[in-house]
Amino acid sequence: MVWATGDLQNPAEVLHESVLKKWTLAQQSNKPVFLIDSADIQNKTVTVNKKFNTFQFKCTTPDFVFAVSNHYLWQARDMVVDSVTMRKALISTAFNPIHKDFFEVNDFTAKTIEVMSFDFPGVAYPYSHLTVVDGRDQMEYPMMINDNPTTTRFDGITLTTHEVFHQIFPFMMATNQTKYAFMDEGWATIGEWYISPIIDSTIVDDYGMDRINSDLGKDWDTPMITNSTELTKSLFINSYPKPALTFLYLWEMMGDSLFKKSLQHYIITWMDKSPTPWDFFFSMNQSCGMNLNWFWKAWYFEQGYPDLGIIGINRLNYSYTVTIKSIGNKPVPVHLTATFADGTKRKFTRTVDIWKNRNITDVIIDTQQSITKLELGDVYDADVDKNNNVLVPKE
Ligand SMILES: [Zn+2]
User: Fold this and answer.
1) Is residue 188 part of a domain?
2) For residue 189, how far is its CA from the centre of ligand 1 (angstroms)?
3) What CATH number does the domain containing 356 carry?
4) Does residue 267 share a domain with residue 137?
5) Are residues 75 and 28 in the same domain?
6) Which of 65, 183, 252, 264 has the most crowded Cβ, counting Cβ within 10 A?
7) What is the number of domains present in the chain?
8) Taking a C-beta distance cutoff of 8 angstroms, is the pair 238, 228 a contact?
């Protein structure tokens, strides 16, 4: 069988009639159907019995890829990707049956496409199909993905959500992957972080924040705007976790609805037009109605690091004033957890815009109890020095 970017133009000429029948069936099924099962392979009833078969594909995507196998199973299902036009896409997987994890990949893929089309970013999947092929890589192509088998469900889910998200970034947008890796890898990373726990709620996926924190601000840690063609030591953090973290901070600051609306505006305005980073920054500024240049400048154009610290605490009757400083130049949100004498906890949040015009802020905590501990930071809060994140007040 041959799978490829684009639509097969001559299925009746190349597919065995039993596979052709199942293919038609899959196009009306919202559950995965085996188009090629082990019996088809054994009985040689996959393609028509000719010495040569020519598969013809038609596509309008910016790139083309194909896969060939004489022993892979093929599973496919159909799903609506646009609730207005009711347009559908065929979600298909081709894999070696010895790779047991791949029996679930069709479900992971369909769930990812559903979230992408209707929730985040909330833009209809652009193509007529998507085929995930069991290969030896972790690589995205238009309408196709080449993914290695995985040994854990965690890896299977996070790998699938990441590579599927690439269908929008870069392919729908046609951004330059080589030069501006953050413009697709950053989104694929946040897509992976957001969608994987929807598929399996036990997943906490953060790319190892401890290691990221220890890399941030090193002398080799260049600004994110550095062309990814430079292959610097910071290529990984600049392409994947750093941009994803900045998108998360903006998401929290704008709130769910405005962030998604702004992102949709960028996608719809710039799709197929090869936006540069500057187009992205200006488009987001325009669509959210805020000038975020202070944020883009600090995170994308400057060297430096994020570091928040608790620098003071004052008690007056039933009120504490906790002073927090942004010691680093990269703005991160404040997530302050206070523990009280009775063991209860309360969390105080200041979104990232708190640092737009200042580097010191106060958090007022009204309580009749004593505070026994203060701690800064959440899973995704980048911070190079955690020593100043905890304060145990002296009584
Ligand atoms: Zn990627």
Assistant:
1) no
2) 7
3) 2.60.40
4) no
5) yes
6) 183
7) 3
8) yes
Helices (H), the chain: 11-14, 17-26, 38-42, 105-118, 153-165, 187-199, 209-215, 235-239, 241-254, 256-270, 277-288, 293-296
Q: Against a cut of 0.90, is the pTM above it?
A: yes
CA–centroid distance, residue 96 to ligand 1 (Å)? 23
Please tell me whether residues 297 and 324 are part of one structural domain. no
Q: Are 239 and 186 in contact (CB under 8 A)?
A: yes
Task: Answer yes or no: is 277 within a domain.
Answer: yes
Ligand 1 centroid to Cα of residue 395, in Å, is: 50
- Residue-wise pLDDT tens digits, 239-286: 999 999 999 999 999 999 999 999 999 999 999 999 999 999 999 999
For residue 187, report the distance from its CA to the centre of ligand 1, in Å.
9
Query: What is the percentage of the chain residues whose pLDDT exceeds 70?
Result: 100
Upper half-sphere CA count for residue 394 (Cβ side, 13 Å): 1
CA of 19 to the centre of ligand 1 (A): 33
Within the chain, strands assigned E span 2-4, 7-8, 33-36, 57-58, 66-68, 73-80, 88-95, 129-134, 138-141, 144-147, 308-316, 319-326, 334-340, 345-350, 360-366, 371-376, 390-391
pLDDT at 230: 87
For ligand 1, a single-atom ion, the residues with CB < 5 A are: 185, 188
Statement: residue 150 has pLDDT above 70: yes
User: 337 CA to middle of ligand 1, Å?
Assistant: 34
Q: Answer whether residue 274 is part of any domain.
A: yes
DSSP designation for 370: P
User: How many residues are there in the chain?
Assistant: 395
Confidence at residue 395, expressed as pLDDT on a 0 to 100 scale: 67
